[in-house]
Amino acid sequence: MFSSNSSQVSSAVNYIEEVFSTYLYTGTSASQTITNNIDLSTKGGLVWIKSRSNDTNHALFDTARGTNKYLRSNATDAQTTASPANSLTAFNTNGFSLGSDTGTEIVNYTGRTYASWTFREQPKFFDVVTWTGTGSNATIAHSLGVVPGCIIVKRTDTTAAWAVYHRSLANTQYLVLNTTATTATNANRWNSTTPTSTVFSLGTDTTVNASGGTYVAYLFAHDAGGFGLTGTDNVISCGSYTGNGSTQQDITLGYEPQWVMIKRTDTTDQWIMVDNMRGFFQTADNALCANTVNAEAADVSMSGAMQPIATGFHLYNANSSVNASGGTYIYIACRRGPMKVPTLGTSVFSPNAYTGTGAVLPITGMGFPPDLLFTKSRTSGNDWCAQDKLRGPSQYLRPNGAIDELNLGTAQLVSIDQNGVTYGNGSSATNFSGSTYLNLSFRRAPGFFDEVCYTGTGSNTTKSHNLGVVPELWIVKGRNAGSETWNVGCTALAATERIILASTAAKDTVPTMWNSTYPTSTVFSIGTAGGSNANTYLYVAYFFATCAGVSKVGSYSGNTGVTVTVPCGFTGGVRFVLIKRTDSTGDWYVWDSARGIVAGNDPYLLLNSTAAEVTGTDYVDTYSAGFEVTTTAPAALNATGGTYIFLAIA
Q1: What is the pLDDT of residue 284?
Q2: Is 138 helix (H, G, I), strand (E, B) or coil?
């Protein structure tokens, strides 16, 4: 008789960050706990682990079968029951725990790097179901609450291939997760019956329904809503597309993905898995394949073949694994998080003062994986370094100059990590032995900060963003546009005006920069100016907004010799202030709490300059609701009749 072990989840979950996580870690061969803030203990779910650095099996653990029991997505083996020392040992309310793993080497072996993907059970997202087969046509109940978009089935008591149902195939067809095989037809897999919102059907094939056999199924929803403040946002999609070869194309999801698994179905090919922690970037895609033991990127060379965009993912070239002309493909995609509007500045911004070592240097304790880094030597005349996760950590831009994007490999930045960054050992700009540095790290979050990479068209157009509110400050840089500089727009300026980040110049009028149009909560406008939209050129745009209690974008008027109080709606003062005079010349001044914003002297750097840090001045003070510009501040910060824009973060 069939039975379902699918857990019933009654509490509403609104955000992708509460049900899905990509978490990277390094093995220690000592017990360790992975804290990814996913409640597996009371809600249930799946943890999928794979070594990135070594050829080892995938290991899939789920709460329905229990700890110490794993399946290999790359093999037909029955369920393995490992000793606790060599396995996942606990499903926690905020992640999971691992044993010392000195035997299997698949989850926690010393020095090896690992990726883990956690799917939490939740209606309209994901479900885990187990049953015992009967050998007769049957239905299995599930708690997904909607028609499944994809179902992955594995027999657990003996050797058997994995069977995959996908909504883009006929209900007589299936794929095999552990092989590169094309779509196959067998009416006995799903009994030629499409799943419903309450059950899915099985035929008599032994891979899904042998009498007395035991099975597990992982069910994925498709565009089912259920998330976000309105409960209508989609967070998972199971779709298909046809490749078009060398012609670039966009696959529209309605959101930016953080994890995608793709399989070509018309010919043999790998099950490709990419995510935005390992390398789902504009410039590289570090793939793992669900059907092989191979280390990261060993199966396929992606080389930026897939790129995340604000509304889905972009297929950049004719890579046969994702975009062969006429090729047919299926995918599962999960939305990027966080979706929740932040309430604390510390959850999205971290200033860090550190001393270089000349050796590989981790900077930890940020509390989040940063999306954007601004780094500067405090004592020498080095350039600022702007690096971000979306473009790829190896890609370098210079905020104080107009150079094109450079690929510096790992010399400056080895990786963006779960709780900080790791700097390389080859750059005086970020990690020279004995030199002091400032790192400013920002996390993308609704209402606070977002980033978009796009290709120019040369014609008036709009580009989508995911800030969720109207951007109040936006910064655009051509990545390969020769001498194109950094152009800045702000709602405190006219929609026809811009300021240049790498300059002291006052605002000027360039109607073609933003097409004389302010951004909206979903798109921003660009005209025909080369600084924002030259045909075929690549650009990056950073967007900031006022987020209650977290950040403030605004403007103030100066008053020579008088303290100017700038309220920001905070309760504990500021940890970061960026100020620029707009009606006349003036530098881009930067203060932060890592170096000190106090009642006395406060060191500052200039974002438009290579100059070393200036100390011994007291131009800005913090107060509970925001900041003050002091009576001693120069005209670039406080002149009667002067107008100034600022970004402040609590």
Answers
A1: 76
A2: strand
Q: How confident is the model at residue 10 (pLDDT cuts 50, 70, 90)?
A: very low
Query: Which residues does 611 contact at the CB level (< 8 Å), separation at least 6?
Result: 381, 605
| Residues 204, 255 within the same domain | no
Q: Are 7 and 44 in contact (CB under 8 A)?
A: yes
Closest CA to 352 of 368, 365, 371: 365
C-alpha dist (Å) from residue 463 to 271, 526, 534: 31, 8, 14
Q: How many CB atoms lie within 10 A of CB 512?
A: 16
Last residue of a domain, one of 335, 368, 395: 335
Domain presence at residue 9: no
Q: 72 with 143, same domain?
A: no
Query: Is 5 a domain residue?
Result: no
Query: What pLDDT is stored for residue 9 in this prediction?
Result: 40
User: For the chain, what is the radius of gyration of the CA atoms?
Assistant: 26
Tell me the pTM. Answer: 0.95
Give pLDDT tens digits for 272-321.
999 999 989 887 789 999 999 999 987 777 877 999 999 999 999 899 99
Its domain, for residue 210, covers 126-220
Collect all residues with Cβ–Cβ distance below 8 Å to 45 and sequence separation of at least 6.
19, 38, 62, 63, 91, 118, 119, 120, 121, 126, 128
Give yes or no: residues 362 and 424 share one domain. yes
In which element (H, E) is residue 629 found?
strand 626-629
Residue at which a domain ends, from 120, 146, 173 = 120
pLDDT, tens only, 493-516: 999 999 999 999 999 999 999 999
Nearest to 217 by CA among 264, 149, 262, 162: 162
Size of the chain in residues? 650
Q: Which structure tokens are listed for 488? A: 């800045």
Q: Higher-confidence residue: 484 or 613? A: 613
Question: Do 370 and 433 fall within a single domain?
Answer: yes
- Going by the DSSP 8-state scheme, the letter that residue 18 receives in this structure is G
Q: Do residues 626 and 555 share a domain?
A: yes
